[in-house]
Amino acid sequence: MWTKRLVVGPLLACLGGGLLVLSFPPFAWGFFAWIALVPLMAAMNGRSPWASLGLAYLAGLAFVVGSFYWIWWVPGYNLLDEALLAFYLALYLAVWGLGVTWLRRRAALPLAVVAPALWVTLEYVRSNLSFLSLPWMLLGHTQYLSLSLIQIASITGAYGLTYLIVLVNAAIAQWVLHVGQRSALAGRSAALARPPIGVLITAALLLVATWLYGLSVTGESAREDRIAVALVQTGFPRDRKWDPAARRSIIERQEELTRSAAAKAPQLIVWPETAVPGDVEHHAPLRQRIAQAARDAKTPLLVGSSEFAKFTDRRLVDRKYNSVYLFLPTGDIAGQYRKIALVPFGEFVPDIFSWVNKVTKEVGDFEPGTRVVVFSNKVGAFICYESVFPDEVRQFANRGAQVLVNISNDGWYGDSGAYAQHLKQARMRAIENSRWLLRDTNTGVTASIDPYGRVITTAPRKMRVVLQAPYALSDATTFYTRHGDWFAYLCAIISLGALLTRLPFRTRTKR
């Protein structure tokens, strides 16, 4: 019997992790997410909290290694870096397994009550834990192809869909365990627990209600004046992007693409992240050249650029920023935004991890920006990795941005599934804030996304092209835009409440 538990449990845990991998891009078989946790929950049933921690950790390792395999495409990464990432991210699933089993034992709470709230709580912690924050691949993101279901994100964020997925998994797991118990006790007089009919009905009703809500929202007739935007995709190879000898050809290519874009009279032209391989603000020749491109196009030009700012504090200090600038048709700079959420171990290395390799040698050490900026044309522009942070992106809409722009360069990930994973998360940001989202990449997926998360038009990857795309302005705000991660807070309160009520507090008694 003990041999069976040592073999079957780990196999079920790995199966669960594998099904999670299949739920995300590049496979994108989102229907697997609704049953992916059932094998793990079945394996944890009847186990001690520490045994459940081990099984859940194993499932987490299988999921992280299978989903973040693209790290091998990133220059400068090695086996140690991927191992550290896997060991860290798998901890969240391990804590979930430990917490679910412990709370079920101490509080005798049903799986469907404990599991969803705790999962959402841990996803929120993972998404907001200082420099270790990584909201990449939240469970709710697996349903990005289910247009009606994902509309709930405009109320709860992606966390609401995560909760629903885990609830359905828990309801199915409780039913499977009940059937298994019934089969094991067939012919005996032992009493059986009631079948989880109530849980199944509740999960089904919530699922149907979520689908109907999304159906009603997407069925609304859109009354908006479409505007034309030109998204410039340069298609420059990653290994040449930071070559000083290639700077002139990079600028010339983008000038050529901008001239062709201007011929169709768009109301905005966008260049991708660090489209200018230099400092467009403080390097006068570069600034004059980009300003002339805006004047020739007679169109506002949104440009990604590095920035080397000098500050005097007893000595001269250089600070490097990843920035985006808005050039007016007059050639003047109308505004600047500095990237706030930097990539750990890519754009900076935390001091306590200074011994870990940077993701790339080319990037160097960036400083984070400190404020959200909405440009004068009502554009809220954020940079690359920032698109995975829902609470940060909603700040742009809260501060008056009527269209969102995400400039990026997914060339670091090669032909792996990372570029598709990145795109689906940007689609969630459009839904959460009911905004058009324009995504412009050097090489990745350049696209126009409507407020329902639909990709309206897209450019072929790795090609030098200008995508003429539609968008519209909107000043309406969603419940999520106004109130943020309230649903995640609610789940955290439920989880903490269940924990505190069952902790073994001791009080002194008077003699």
Describe it for me?
The chain has 511 residues and is of the alpha/beta class. It folds into 2 domains: 2-184 and 193-219 and 489-501; 227-477, 4-Layer Sandwich (Nitrilase/N-carbamoyl-D-aminoacid amidohydrolase), CATH 3.60.110. Helices cover 45% and strands 14% of the residues. It has helices at 2-23, 38-44, 49-67, 79-107, 111-128, 147-150, 153-156, 158-184, 197-218, 238-241, 247-262, 284-297, 390-398, 418-433, 479-483, 486-501; strands spanning 227-233, 268-270, 276-279, 301-312, 316-327, 333-338, 379-383, 403-408, 437-441, 447-449, 455-458, 465-471. Strands 1, 2, 3, 4, 5, 6 and 12 form a 7-stranded mixed beta sheet that branches. It has a 5-stranded mixed beta sheet with strand order 7-8-9-10-11, covered by helices on one side. β8, α14 (418-433) and β9 (437-441) form a beta-alpha-beta unit. The two termini are 50 Å apart. The model is unreliable at 310-316, 358-363 and 506-511 (pLDDT under 50).
Q: What are the secondary-structure elements, in order, as H or E? A: HHHHHHHHHEHHEEHEEEEHEHEEEEHH
Helical/strand content category = alpha/beta
Task: Report the principal-axis shape.
Answer: elongated
* Intertermini distance: 50 Å
Please report which band the strand proportion falls in: under 5%, 5-15%, 15-25%, 25-35%, 35-45% or over 45%.
5-15%
Low-confidence stretches: 310-316, 358-363, 506-511
Quick take:
The protein folds into two domains: 2-184 and 193-219 and 489-501; 227-477, Nitrilase/N-carbamoyl-D-aminoacid amidohydrolase. The chain is built from 16 helices and twelve strands. It has helices at residues 2-23, 38-44, 49-67, 79-107, 111-128, 147-150, 153-156, 158-184, 197-218, 238-241, 247-262, 284-297, 390-398, 418-433, 479-483, 486-501; strands at 227-233, 268-270, 276-279, 301-312, 316-327, 333-338, 379-383, 403-408, 437-441, 447-449, 455-458, 465-471.
